[in-house]
């Protein structure tokens, strides 16, 4: 029997790999001779870097960079030496989690630190980049990141246009002579699960701006400034990505990756499944095990476990899911390719007790063992 395990983290309890290895232990208790392969799982959002560092034997690189408010922040990225790959989460450099409610200011919030992380990884020899861009505090069209990478944005007087969204409408020319030459050798894969264009009522400013501090009185102007920036970019670089799906992601950071770095924007789960080589292992799998902290109807709407299930069904594997808890509407997961799912809590307990890592691990092992005794 070959069992392939790819389970998302049980947030607050077990990492993706900790949960996966607990499942492996449970399977082996029922079937000592089973071939069990454990792969890390994430969706390109928070926790992706940690999952791939742990699951792919990467190195954590700690770095001090410029945060969204222009002050130094501590961040890190993953480094896979064998493939010269860097795994980054934009949110660690320019995330909304780094800004208090009172500090939100889309006019000045910058993605400069994202560019600093990319440069550090490139200097380390990385030429492949996997970057999650969810959870930004910025609406700067990526101008901050691009400035860190060496692009110069000048106003009508030939002066630096500045940082943040307030700079976008001032840009009249773009200089490229100081751009890091290493970037031409780099391949950027961006995990992007939104399809918004850069501008307009469905664009970055109107849809995501309010959560970053964009108020109604500046919304139209910021959107017009973003469109202006896109026009100058198009005239300078000879491309046009403002209307491309995902250009509006992360306050226009998607647009910057597309226009300036020739990046690929890919749904997060698809990108991660490709990165960990899951499909290769599924081709001869008998049973595939997935799951997450809680299975509900949202899981069935394209979250990581369903991504695994769809890929497994391509090869006719049976798919099981385990979770800390399940809801009544989790039945939608059955229609999405998960044959059966099981909660791992095995008795009356408090949420706090259930979420303790040692308890969650043992509950996972015991639940998996009993289910696999059916096979």
Q: Could you explain how this protein is built, in words?
A:
By secondary structure, the protein is α/β, with parallel strands linked by helices. It is 34% helix and 19% strand. It contains 14 helices and 13 strands. The protein has helices spanning 16-30, 48-55, 91-94, 112-123, 143-148, 204-208, 216-237, 253-261, 268-275, 278-282, 304-313, 332-335, 351-355, 357-372; strands at 2-5, 35-38, 59-66, 72-80, 85-89, 128-132, 152-154, 173-175, 187-191, 264-266, 287-295, 318-326, 340-343. The strands form 3 sheets. It has a 6-stranded mixed β-sheet with strand order 3-4-5-6-9-10, with helices on both faces. Helix 1 runs parallel beside helix 14. The radius of gyration is 22 Å and the shape is elongated. The model has no long low-confidence stretch (mean pLDDT 95).
Brief synopsis:
This protein is α/β, with parallel strands linked by helices. It has helices at 16-30, 48-55, 91-94, 112-123, 143-148, 204-208, 216-237, 253-261, 268-275, 278-282, 304-313, 332-335, 351-355, 357-372; strands at 2-5, 35-38, 59-66, 72-80, 85-89, 128-132, 152-154, 173-175, 187-191, 264-266, 287-295, 318-326, 340-343.
Number of strand elements: 13
User: What structural category characterises the helix and strand content?
Assistant: alpha/beta
SSE ordering: EHEHEEEHHEHEEEHHHEHHEHEHEHH
Helix content: 25-40%
Q: Taking all residues together, what is the mean pLDDT?
A: 95
**What profile does the largest beta sheet have?**
6 strands, mixed
- Main sheet: strand order: 3-4-5-6-9-10
Radius of gyration: 22 Å
User: How many helical stretches?
Assistant: 14
Low-confidence spans: pLDDT under 50, at least 5 residues?
Answer: none
Task: Give the overall shape.
Answer: elongated
Distance, first to last CA:
9 Å
């Amino acid at each position: 029997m070959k069992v392939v395990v790819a389970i998302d983290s049980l947030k607050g309890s077990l990492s993706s790999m900790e949960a996966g290895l607990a499942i492996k232990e449970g399977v082996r208790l029922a079937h000592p001779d089973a071939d069990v392969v454990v792969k890390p799982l994430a969706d390109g959002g928070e926790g992706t870097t940690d999952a791939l560092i742990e699951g792919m034997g990467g190195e954590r690189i700690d770095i001090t960079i410029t945060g969204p408010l222009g002050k130094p922040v501590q961040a890190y990225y993953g480094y896979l030496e064998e493939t010269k790959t860097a795994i980054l989460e934009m949110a660690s450099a320019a995330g909304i989690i780094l800004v208090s409610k009172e500090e939100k200011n889309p006019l000045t919030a910058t993605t400069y630190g994202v560019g600093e992380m990319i440069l550090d990884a490139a200097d380390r020899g990385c030429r492949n980049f996997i970057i999650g861009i969810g959870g930004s505090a910025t609406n700067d069209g990526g101008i901050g990141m691009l400035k860190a990478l060496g692009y110069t944005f000048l106003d009508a007087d030939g002066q630096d246009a500045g940082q943040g969204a307030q700079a976008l409408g001032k840009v009249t020319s773009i200089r490229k002579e100081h751009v890091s030459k290493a970037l031409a050798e780099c391949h950027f894969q961006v995990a992007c699960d939104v399809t918004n264009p850069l501008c307009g009522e469905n664009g970055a400013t109107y849809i995501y701006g309010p959560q970053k501090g964009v108020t109604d009185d500046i919304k139209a102007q910021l959107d017009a400034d973003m469109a202006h920036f896109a026009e100058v970019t198009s005239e300078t670089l000879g491309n046009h990505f403002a209307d491309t799906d995902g250009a509006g992601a992360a306050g226009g950071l998607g647009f910057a990756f597309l226009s300036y770095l020739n990046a690929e924007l890919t749904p997060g789960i698809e990108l991660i499944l490709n990165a960990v080589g899951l499909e290769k292992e599924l081709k001869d799998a008998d049973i595939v095990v997935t799951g997450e902290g809680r299975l509900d109807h949202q899981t069935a709407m394209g979250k990581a476990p369903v991504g695994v299930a769809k890929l497994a069904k391509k090869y006719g594997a049976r798919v099981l899911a385990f979770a800390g808890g399940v809801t009544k509407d989790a039945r939608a997961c059955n229609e999405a390719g998960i044959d059966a799912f099981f909660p791992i809590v095995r008795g009356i307990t408090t949420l706090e007790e259930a979420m303790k890592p040692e308890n969650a691990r043992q509950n996972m092992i015991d639940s998996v063992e009993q289910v696999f005794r059916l096979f």
